[in-house]
Amino acid sequence: MASFMLMEPTNQSFQELIGNGIKYQVPRFQRDYAWDRQQWEDLWADIETIAEEQFHYMGYIVLQRKGQYDFEVIDGQQRLITLSLLILAAMKNIQNLIDKNQEVDDNTQRLSVLKQRYIGSTNPISLKVDSKLSLNRNNSANFKSICANLDAPNRRGQTHTNKLINRCFKFFQEKKFGGSGQEIAEFIERVASGMIFTKIVVQDDLNAYKVFETLNARGVQLSTPDLLKNYIFSIVTKNNNVPDEELNELDETWSEIVSQLGESNFTDFIRYHHNFQASLSQKKELFSSVRKLANTPEKAYAYLRSLGDYAPVYASLLNPEDEWWASQDQDYRSAKKYLEGFALFNIKQPFTILMSAFFKFTADEFIKLVKYLYVLSIRYNVVCHFSPNEQESAYNQLAIKIDKQEFTRASHIKNSELFKKLYPSDEAFFNAFEFHKMPSRRSEKKIRFLLAEIETYLGHNTNYSKTTLEHICPYNADEHWDSYFGEGVNDIQDRLGNVILLDKDQLGRSSFANKKLAYINSRYPLAEKVASYPQWNLQNLNDYQSWLAKQAVETWNISYE
Description:
Blueprint: E1 10-13, H1 14-18, E2 23-25, H2 37-47, H3 50-53, E3 56-65, E4 70-75, H4 77-99, H5 104-119, E5 120-122, E6 129-131, E7 133-134, H6 140-149, H7 160-173, H8 181-194, E8 195-202, H9 205-217, H10 224-236, H11 244-261, H12 263-274, H13 283-293, H14 297-318, H15 336-344, H16 351-358, H17 363-383, H18 388-403, H19 410-414, H20 417-422, H21 426-434, H22 444-457, E9 468-471, H23 479-485, E10 499-502, H24 512-520, H25 525-531, H26 538-555
Parallel strand pairs: 2-4, 2-7, 3-8
Antiparallel strand pairs: 1-8, 3-4, 5-6, 9-10
């Protein structure tokens, strides 16, 4: 990760971060302040441990150097703002002591030193504060007012985010920092020196993105949407000719995009959205590739509009139950069962093709395409476990052809050499399915889904969510079953040939003879097939799963006649 950065990560206290004449700027279009009472209470609980533990770790702060003493805050602004408000609230308590004529000279001097150290210098003429920390366009004026006056502005029509800043200041203002100016100043110094950050300084926004993706992959959640937003909006406003009203509308559009997707899905959406317009990009090159798509104000506008158009499509592909589908043409409803399959097996690769096709194909052609990709996914991903890299490359090329309207029907995809090359042959699929295992304890829902699809193919329309999974030879075989089944009893628990669907799980470790009676009366074709065997052993299990594999070949099949 060091190659992304100007210097190695270092641990610094809030006091060290904010001292030495260094200034921090939250980018103009960074997200607004959003912490609320729950986070303030959590922070206060952490602060109360410092007296005993001396230190509290606050996580990563990612900065981009803009000058010798100037940095942009790429990630960590919520924590920096809240700690600053905490210190401002403590300083307000010292001002209250001055107003009560308590140690006026000493407390005035303390307040001046603290303001210089943590807040910034005051212009002697305008009395405006040159803040060490400057916020984004929506929070800047409100925060500066608190810095200058040690009081929350009481203005009409305040935005929600500025109300949060003011409430945060008042929340901490009511806390007990100490009974005297000296005790309050000691509290501030103890907190400022005890709150520890890991500081990362990057060269530019491209390297910031690499840091974000690296840390996110390690489970440290940083805000990739903010980083991309800053870039897109900086390009949109490059010529300084965008009125505030229009910027507010763009800001609302962005917020709606992130809200629809959720931050955890954002990067995948950006990547799949990118991959139907340009050559395949993996996560590590994504930010660089997106910058090429939106490197002028006109292109940035178009890119933002496109994100707004496709965000609901992607969110709804992820969630077959999304209410968005109800507002679409009735013909789209039949996509639900295929999308359930994608969701259940966490298969997202087809989404770059489906996003590209949604506005280009008729509803009927779109449904056909979803089905083809679903069948391919079961064969390729779920059973055969072939290379996802080769698949993603092919999908990228197919999606671009749809976007350029070279392919206008589902059959164009199905009959393309790219698709055919991916599609596992009947023989390959049969061979993979014939001895296929799935961990039945962890994957019960997935197994029920697959078996229900075969049941439906055999004429018994089955809703997998209303079935139970029955192990023919019990998962943990007792002495009777161990002796009865014989050789291989410890190797077949997760074989697809040892499980069937029933309405209720009532058979447990019953003998095979008793189970057969239930299977015959179950109405489930797979159970009836198992009941046709005189006994249950490895030979018959293999025979049954071979038969099951033949049914799977027909269940998930694309005709090329």
